[in-house]
Amino acid sequence: MDELDATDEFDSDLQTAQRDFSQLEKDYYKEGFREGADVGRQRLAQEGFNSGYCNGIEDGMKRGHVLGQLNAMLQWLERTETAAAETRNDTADALVGQLKALLLEAEGAEDVTWMAVKVQAVKAQFLCTCKKT
């Protein structure tokens, strides 16, 4: 009977060891998955930040250029009209209104490229208006 008890005890220890090993394997698998997921999220976040930063710089430069052109044209027209009120014409007044509306639109616009196209159209009108005065 001693041999049977020893064999049963050995089998029991073996089963316990296999169960323990299986549990350890599951635990390490879960931990590895968590670590891998964290590393993946960090990499994606960094890549997203890098991409977003570059896009933000480019967008900011375009937006600054558009706003700068609009403000420069508006300031020039307002100063010119103030200095020579007698030469004021309806075209210049309409252009001032158009520039002010575009400034408001440009400040909240998401599509800066389209705003740049609109500014170029207004700039052509502005140049024609300047030649008349």
Give a brief rundown of this model.
This protein has helices at 2-83, 90-108, 112-132. It is mostly helical.
Mean pLDDT: 80
Number of strands: 0
Q: Which structural class do you get from the secondary structure elements?
A: mainly alpha
The description of the largest β-sheet is: none
Report the end-to-end length measured between terminal Cα atoms: 120 Å
Radius of gyration: 36 Å
Shape type? rod-shaped
List unreliable stretches of 5+ residues.
none
Strand content: under 5%
Order of helices and strands: HHH
Q: Mind sketching the topology for me?
A:
Layout: H1 2-83, H2 90-108, H3 112-132
Helix pairs in contact: 1-2, 1-3, 2-3
Describe it for me?
With 133 residues, the protein is mainly alpha-helical. Helices cover 92% and strands 0% of the residues. It has three helices and no strands. The termini are far apart. The relative contact order is 0.08. The model has no long low-confidence stretch (mean pLDDT 80).
Characteristics:
133 residues, single chain, mainly alpha
